[in-house]
Amino acid sequence: MKLIQALKKIKDLRRKVDDLQIMIRDHSADLSHETPVYPDQRQAVDAFVQARQDILKEILRLRIAIQRTNLCTPVTVTFMEREVTKSIAEWIHMRKDLAALELASYTAMTDRGLKEGVIRQSNGTEQEVKIRRYYDPKTRDSMKSMLQSAPSEIDAALEVANAITDLIE
Predict the structure, then answer these.
(1) pLDDT tens-digit readout, 37-94
(2) Number of alpha carbons in the 13 Å side-chain half-sphere of residue 101
(3) Does residue 80 sit in helix, strand or coil?
(4) What does the domain layout of the chain look like in residue ranges?
(5) Which residue intervals of the chain are DSSP H helices?
(6) How far is residue 75's CA from residue 86's CA, in Å, rounded to a whole number?
(7) Does the pTM of the predicted model rise above 0.85?
């Protein structure tokens, strides 16, 4: 089974779990004057509960297999002609929030609105003032560009990986 198939199967199983929850809710009790829907209503409810438990076990099995696969499967993503290889799990975390947090570091590197020029000192002499940058603007701009495009690059690589990667059971 491919990763994408497992992900879609979990989604379908979740729908079935929700449907069974409704069946349990709707048939777990009635009033004495009502006619039960099933010949043995208690057995039917027990069967719904058991089916739900079995499906939840299958969802858990698939989730663990997906996690194992995500941890063990390397994926290469190309950023501005530079290839970076990480596990699927690492890319998921990068995509979720870490790339944005790293981008914030480079976005914070600014001149803070400071102006170069000449200032008059208290003794009346003039002093030329220059901005000192404690970062390389070229590196900052390059990293910002790369990190801004990271989500779409990661998404594209993970879509391919999900389609071609076999689930590690």
Answers:
(1) 999 999 999 999 999 999 999 999 999 999 999 999 999 999 888 899 999 999 999 9
(2) 6
(3) coil
(4) 3-72, 74-109+136-164
(5) 3-27, 41-72, 88-93, 99-107, 137-164
(6) 6
(7) no
